[in-house]
Design goal:
Blueprint (H helix, E strand, L loop, with lengths): L2 H17 L6 H14 L6 H15 L2 H11 L5 H18 L2 H18 L2 H17 L3 H17 L3 H17 L3 H13 L9 H12 L3 H18 L2 H17 L3 H17 L6 H12 L4 H13 L3 H11 L3 H5 L7 H14 L3 H19 L5 H9 L2 H14 L2 H12 L12 H15 L4 H15 L14 H8 L3 E8 L2 E8 L2 E9 H17 L2 H16 L3 H4 L4 E4 L20 E3 L3 H8 L9 E5 L6 H12 L2 E3 L6 H8 L4 E5 L2 E2 L9 E4 L2 E4 H4 L8 E5 L7 E2 L5 E2 L1 H8 L3 E5 L5 H16 L4 H12 L4 E5 L2
Parallel strand pairs: 1-4, 4-5, 5-16, 6-7, 6-8, 8-12, 12-15
Antiparallel strand pairs: 1-2, 2-3, 9-10, 10-11, 13-14, 15-16
Helix pairs in contact: 1-2, 2-3, 3-4, 3-5, 4-5, 5-6, 5-7, 6-7, 7-8, 7-9, 8-9, 9-10, 9-11, 10-11, 11-12, 11-13, 12-13, 13-14, 13-15, 14-15, 15-16, 15-17, 16-17, 17-19, 19-20, 19-22, 20-21, 20-22, 22-23, 24-25, 27-28, 31-35, 35-36
Length: 781
């Protein structure tokens, strides 16, 4: 082999390492190749080797060293080397965050590469220009560049690079605020063969989408893996970006001290690498998390962030410091939904009267709802809504300041509807398979680590769903009053640590001030504890305290009427049947007025079928459902027949479903709350995928009615999942259910239903006779 062939062979080996993300030792090898070529009289090879070294320096975050190599390579007499060098120089601008200049230079390089027929380098240049377009929020241009580059790579047989272009289209979708599409592209890229371990930079994009979706806790392990892999590979450019992503995760997760420290580290890395346009992005996160309010510093950093396209970071910094809010307000008409919402928040703070505040806050929430209207995964919808809790709170404060009860009611309910109405997810056999695998692992006693991995696979697949939803929050007072009839609506809320209630009775709306929310919530917790441990004396005393706190100012207004209750805070966990004002009275509990109206208007035809299901390991469960089946007829599922698939098939379109089973509530992941059946748990994820929801569901299971209130006001749990799927009414307990005692209560409940009583009334009468046991009627009642 000749000396030239030897050097070229070694160069190809280095290129393979660089392609695989192994750049740590490439610099030393390439420097040696350059020296050997110069000493051996093989000068034409030197520019080629310098271009590769420039690429390595760029990937390591050494922009100055990259440009030194490019300057030498651009002197090459070979046009091919000069055009490639121009392409790399433009890519270095992109890495530096000089995106507008990068687009111009890459466009010139693309023309030259097309002329030379350099398809591989042309694809590289298109990827760079697509990235720059993306950071400039030119999403259509970016998507075209990535799609074109992907087709070129596919034609060259470069499967991994083609898959990377699919991933990059996800980056573009994220820039446009289309989070499900972004996650679908990421998923498709991995399926197409993009190896994450060799390209850990893709994890940064995934983590940032999860942060944008309000899932910072889920994003943290993703970005931690990226940091580890990038650090080991010596890829300084992407390591600095991953460090910034860690800071963003910590900030969103409510860890400001960690966020400030890590963002400061990222800022140092960017400045050390000469990436001055990235520095303001990191510094803005650092100052926002640290609570720095020096107006001069805030203005300088925010202006730099704006100049380089970091609009969201600049907006959050200005809002946190209360500086230059007009510069944030101008963003309210364009950009991603969160940026528009922050623009409306700034506009609200600048408003000179209460009506201006309300109008701006309502517009901001509407922007978020429009964004979530195509997201099927409720976890994503609730997460996005949580970003604008401050906007909702500001609007509610303005409504309360006005003192008009109807405005407070309407606004309190609009805050609860930030996430928007439910979207019916498409049938997804992959998700179904993952749920089956998770069930099998739990049923067989799989290790906690295995179960966690399988749960994450279910969540990740669920996030990909999309659809279209109407805005159910737009109800009118004139629509509400006739639906209530003789019932009283009581909607609770909190602002600034104070609890209030709005009542609607006979068409009249009243506002009631109740006192400190912390005191009321402590009394609720005392009720739950006393009921759970069986202390009747303590339970009675605590129940009176809750009653006085919640209904004391309302007794003369709601006396003797059926109740529709919209709880707030810990009120979602109240066993209402123990509260003196609710004993013997029909009480329907709903997450929002909009949800109640939708549940009342359900006209979906049912099969008329009654379904009775008993899960395993309940001493009296089988006896309970067999007796009910014998008394009322229908379909009976017990023993090995009571599988998840059989139960879901029976639930589909049923008139009434009764499930007696062990229940499990998951406060950490409420959509994994479940009832245990013969082959494992039936999750909230399962019921959300029913084609036709059952009309009435009774869950005789521990904690099946419990839920988690997310920032932004959304409520997640098994019972609320059924309501979202279209079920009109769910009867379930918010406490542990004694197996034996439940038999008499549910028998009386169903007897009342057959006699013509509504669900809430039948439950109230059954509880008077047999004890309350924590059962609550959710929905239409």
């Amino acid at each position: 082999m000749s000396p030239e062939e030897t050097l070229l062979s070694r160069h190809r080996s280095v290129l393979a390492d660089v392609e695989a993300g192994r750049v740590a030792g490439a610099r030393r090898v390439l420097s040696g190749l350059i020296g050997r070529a110069e000493r051996g009289g093989l000068a034409p090879l030197v520019p080629r080797f310098r271009l590769t070294l420039a690429w390595v320096e760029l990937d390591r975050g050494r922009l100055a060293a990259c440009r030194v190599q490019l300057a030498a390579a651009l002197d090459s007499p070979c046009e091919e080397d000069r055009v490639r060098g121009g392409c790399l120089a433009a890519l270095s601008r992109c890495a530096a965050g000089e995106h507008a200049a990068a687009v111009a230079e890459l466009s010139t390089a693309i023309a030259g590469l097309r002329r030379l027929g350099e398809r591989r380098w042309l694809a590289n240049a298109l990827v760079g220009r697509g990235t720059a377009h993306g950071y400039l929020h030119r999403v259509v241009d970016a998507d075209i560049d990535f799609a074109t580059a992907g087709a070129l790579y596919a034609g060259l047989g470069e499967r991994v690079r083609a898959a990377a272009c699919v991933h990059n289209r996800g980056f573009v979708a994220a820039q446009a605020g289309d989070l499900p599409s972004a996650l679908r592209y990421f998923n498709d890229a991995e399926t197409a063969g993009l190896p994450v371990d060799r390209h850990p930079e893709v994890l940064i994009d995934r983590a940032q989408v999860l942060v944008a979706a309000g899932l910072a806790a889920s994003a943290r392990p993703v970005v931690a893996k990226a940091v580890s892999l990038l650090g080991a590979a010596g890829r300084g450019t992407k390591l600095a970006e991953a460090t910034l992503a860690v800071a963003q995760c910590a900030w969103r997760a409510g860890q400001p001290d960690v966020a400030a420290e890590v963002a400061a580290r990222a800022a140092v890395l960017f400045r050390r690498q000469g990436r001055e346009s990235w520095w303001p992005a990191a510094k803005a996160v650092e100052l926002t998390a640290a609570g720095v309010v020096s107006p001069g510093l805030v203005r300088r950093v925010a202006a730099g962030a704006d100049r380089h396209g970091w609009w969201l970071a600049a907006a959050e910094l200005r809002l946190a410091a209360g500086v230059d809010l007009a510069d944030v307000a101008v963003r309210r008409h364009r950009g991603p939904a969160l940026l528009r919402a922050l623009g409306w928040l700034a506009r609200a703070r600048l408003a000179t009267n209460r009506l201006g505040v309300l109008a701006a806050c309502r517009a901001g929430l509407r922007a978020v709802r429009r964004n979530t209207a195509t997201i099927a995964a409720w976890e994503l919808r609730a997460g996005v809504a949580g970003h604008v809790a401050t906007l909702a709170d500001l609007g509610l404060r303005a409504a309360l300041a006005g003192g008009r009860a109807r405005t407070v009611l309407r606004w309190a309910d609009e805050c609860r509807a930030v996430a928007g109405p439910p979207v019916s997810p498409p049938a997804d056999p992959v998700l179904a398979e993952r749920l089956v695998a998770l069930r099998a692992a739990i049923a067989s006693g799989g290790s906690p680590n295995l179960v966690r991995r399988l749960e994450q696979r279910v969540r990740a697949r669920e996030w990909l769903g999309s659809g279209v939803a109407d805005d159910e929050s737009r109800w009118t007072f004139g629509e509400l009053v006739p639906r209530l009839g003789a019932a009283a609506l009581v909607c609770f809320g909190s602002v600034g640590g104070d609890r209030f209630a709005v009542s609607v009775v006979d068409g009249r709306c009243r506002l009631h001030r109740l006192g400190r929310a912390s005191v009321i919530d402590a009394a609720v917790r005392a009720v739950r504890f006393a009921a759970a441990v069986g202390r009747p004396g303590a339970l009675a005393r605590s129940a009176v305290e809750v009653d006085d706190a919640l209904f004391g100012p309302l007794r003369g207004v709601i006396e003797g009427r059926p109740l529709v209750v919209v709880p707030a805070g810990a009120g979602h966990a109240v066993p209402w049947g123990v509260v003196p004002s609710c004993v013997g009275r029909p009480v329907s509990v709903v997450p929002s007025v909009a949800t109640w109206l939708r549940a009342r208007s359900v006209t979906r035809p049912t099969s008329g079928e009654r379904v009775w299901v008993a899960g395993p390991r309940l001493r009296y469960g089988c006896r309970e459902v067999r007796a009910l089946h014998e008394a009322h007829g229908g379909q009976l599922l017990t023993g090995r027949r009571a599988t998840v698939s059989a139960t879901l098939a029976a639930l589909d379109g049923a008139e009434l479903v009764h499930v007696a089973a062990h229940g499990r509530f998951r406060a950490d992941q409420p959509l994994f709350s479940a009832v245990e059946l013969a082959d494992g748990p039936l999750f909230a994820y399962d019921v959300q995928r029913l084609r036709r929801a059952p009309r009435l569901v009774v869950l005789s299971a521990c904690d099946a009615g419990r839920s988690v209130v997310r920032p932004g006001g959304d409520v997640l749990g098994l019972a609320t999942a059924l309501l979202r799927s279209g079920t009109s009414t769910v009867i379930a307990s918010v406490l542990p259910v004694p197996d034996r005692q439940a038999v008499g209560l549910v028998t009386a409940l169903h007897a009342g239903l057959v006699a013509g009583s509504g669900p809430a009334e039948a439950l109230a009468r059954a509880q008077v006779r047999h004890g309350q046991l924590g059962f609550v009627c959710f929905g239409a009642g």
